[in-house]
Amino acid sequence: MARVELIDCRNSNMNGLRGLVVNHTEDTISLLTETGRVLTIPIDSCRYYVWFENCTRLMTHRELRRLIRRLPSS
Fold first, then answer.
1. How far apart, in whole angstroms, are the C-alpha atoms of residue 64 and residue 61?
2. Can you tell me the distance from the alpha carbon of 50 to that of 27, in angstroms, rounded to the nearest whole number?
3. What CATH number does residue 40 fall under?
4. Domain tally for the chain?
5. Measured between alpha carbons, how far is residue 28 from residues 11, 22, 55, 71 in Å?
6. Which domain holds residue 16?
7. How many CB atoms lie within 10 A of CB 57?
8. Could you tell me which residues come within 8 angstroms of residue 15 by beta carbon, excluding any fewer than 6 positions away?
9. Which strand (E) or helix (H) includes residue 63?
10. pLDDT tens digits, the chain, 74 residues: what are they?
């Protein structure tokens, strides 16, 4: 699982959301938020700070899509 923070979202209410990517499809991610809710988010609606393998990176939706393809889907 990758931990992410959403930034530059089309829906500004999602900016700053943090959580774990617990599932994914080609076009969406399911994010387990810090409050325990699971949100399904269109992957191309934001940019992401990603904490993965002991580093933090700012990623576009294309980069995140490539990363989560390597992760097992739950």
1. 5
2. 18
3. 2.30.30.210
4. 1
5. 15, 11, 23, 14
6. 3-70
7. 13
8. 6, 7, 8, 9, 46
9. helix 61-70
10. 778 999 999 888 889 999 998 888 888 999 999 999 999 999 899 999 998 778 888 888 888 888 877 766 55
Q: Dihedral, CA atoms, 10, 11, 13, 14, nearest 10 degrees? A: -70
3-state secondary structure of 38: strand
User: Under 8 Å CB-to-CB from 21, ≥6 apart: which residues?
Assistant: 1, 2, 3, 4, 29, 30, 31, 68, 71
Alpha helices, H only, 14-60: none
Residues counted in the chain: 74
